[in-house]
UniProtKB/TrEMBL annotation:
EC number: 3.1.3.2
Top-rank taxon: Eukaryota
Name of the featured protein: Purple acid phosphatase
Native organism: Asparagus officinalis (Garden asparagus)
Keywords, comma-separated and alphabetical: Glycoprotein, Hydrolase, Membrane, Signal, Transmembrane, Transmembrane helix
Calcineurin-like phosphoesterase domain sequence ranges: 157-350
Record field: catalytic activity: a phosphate monoester + H2O = an alcohol + phosphate
Length: 445
């Protein structure tokens, strides 16, 4: 296979395109010329934090903050909140206004200092058909109908990926762009609401993302802003996160909501969500679970994607070395498991690395990508280490999101979409080849 590279400047793309696709090759050439026009791009300024109130016509029983997540091969978890007690029931069907199926679940709540949450409803529905639009209503409330589309049964499949989302006007811009991308599943490597102990901000965040999170599954892991510990007063970490964002950890054999895995596209893609703020040394539950989980992956036919919060590779001056302990503990496991790509957040900027292992370029290591630029209130991390390390191929401090389009068992297209004056602009892209095809790497394993 021939690999073509375009090296435009230090802060532009190194594009590799498989020779089987002349269309992709031509697209890369056009993209390279367009990219040259963006050299004068100016970094965006911070924007105000949004406060999303409850709808004027809502009452104590109105479902709000609706989001869905995968809950097995053909099931979906529906989560929503009501201010008062209401039935934990979801009615659903494939025709708007008609709900021949129903499922019931449970409701819970939590308190945090002087705050008391609403009723958090948790209902798993299914079995569901793949690549199908379902209409549903929560708690038998006829006033609000939602709909979602299930992921496709086979490849191709598209993931939207964004970290450190927050709830600013930049967040809103990012959400709009992701809506237009028609993704199948959203992956979020931590730092969701930036509530930072102010619990009503969790409610505002839920209302902000509902137009997206109610229509496609959101799969998330925790970041440092989800810890929310207060000495003496609130000593249990991740209280709000665990209560509001229940992930299918038990289905993957994990004992913690902070790390888990799941398969999509009939087992063609294995996604691992790791916990940067859960124990990860060799005696920990996460370490032992990861070894067992990767041991089950059929690398002859599966893509393997990992998400963490604190990046293991980072040439930004912000958060230098904060992922190093986790890297030292777990990197060899990922390397032996032939993980294809690792996504991280935490650093409020974008950066793509080459395939790397133990701080050096390695054709059998994963591509590392930092995507912590969703739109948070803390602003961008704009200072980079100079000169740019050889293993760092593209870096830019801008808000945006990424899209991983896994085309088939061998190739995937990665694009990073910068929020350029509220317009999504592809500022970086690369074709990735699955390590399952690299016989030399599989011999090394």
């Amino acid at each position: 296979m021939h690999i073509y590279f375009f090296n435009i400047s230090e802060n532009t793309m190194r594009l590799s395109l498989p020779s089987f696709s002349s269309v992709a090759f031509i697209t890369g050439i056009i993209f390279a010329f367009l990219l040259q026009e963006s050299v004068s791009y100016e970094r965006p300024k911070a924007r105000e934090t949004l406060a999303i109130p409850l709808a004027d016509d809502a009452d104590e029983l109105t479902p709000q903050q609706v989001h869905i997540s995968l809950a097995g091969r053909d099931e979906m978890r529906v989560t929503w909140i009501t201010d008062d007690d209401a039935p934990s029931t979801v009615e659903y069907g494939t025709v708007s206004g008609e709900y021949p199926f129903s499922a019931s679940g449970s409701a819970s709540s939590y308190s945090y200092v002087m705050y008391n949450s609403g009723q958090i409803h948790d209902v798993v529905i299914g079995p569901l058909q793949p690549d199908t639009v379902y209409y549903y209503r929560c708690g038998s409330n006829p006033a609000r109908e939602f709909s979602f589309k299930t992921p496709p049964p086979v490849l191709p499949i598209k993931f939207a990926i964004v970290g450190d989302l927050g709830q600013t006007d930049w967040t809103n811009s990012t959400l709009t762009h992701m809506t237009d991308s028609n993704y199948d599943i959203l992956l979020l490597p931590g730092d969701l609401s930036y509530a930072d102990t102010n619990q009503p901000r969790w409610d505002s965040f839920g209302r902000l993302i509902e137009p997206l999170s109610s229509t496609r599954p959101w799969m998330v892991t925790q970041g440092n802003h989800e810890i929310e510990k207060i000495p003496i007063v609130e000593t249990k970490p991740f209280k709000a996160y665990n209560a509001r964002w229940r992930m299918p950890y038990d289905l993957s054999g994990s004992r913690s909501n902070l790390y888990y895995s799941f398969d999509v596209a009939n087992g063609s893609v294995h996604v691992i969500m790791l916990g940067s703020y859960a124990d990860f040394d060799s005696s920990s539950g996460q370490y032992k679970w990861l070894v067992e989980d990767l041991g089950k992956v059929d690398r002859r036919r599966m893509w393997t994607v990992v998400l963490i919060h604190a990046p293991w590779y980072n040439s930004n001056t912000a958060h230098q070395g904060e992922g190093e302990d986790m890297r030292a503990s777990l990197e060899e496991i990922l390397y032996g498991g032939r993980v294809d790509v690792v996504f991280a957040g935490h650093v409020h900027a974008y950066e793509r690395f080459t395939r790397v292992f133990n701080n050096d370029e390695d054709d059998c290591g994963p591509v590392h990508i930092t995507i912590g630029d969703g739109g948070n209130k803390e602003g961008l991390a704009s200072d980079y280490i100079d000169p740019q390390p050889k293993i760092s191929k593209f870096r830019e401090a801008s808000f945006g999101h990424g899209e991983l389009d896994i085309v088939n068992h061998s190739h995937a297209r990665w694009t990073w979409h910068r929020n350029d004056n509220d317009e999504p602009v592809i500022a970086d892209q690369a074709w990735l080849t699955s390590l399952s095809l690299n016989k030399a790497c599989n011999k090394k394993k």
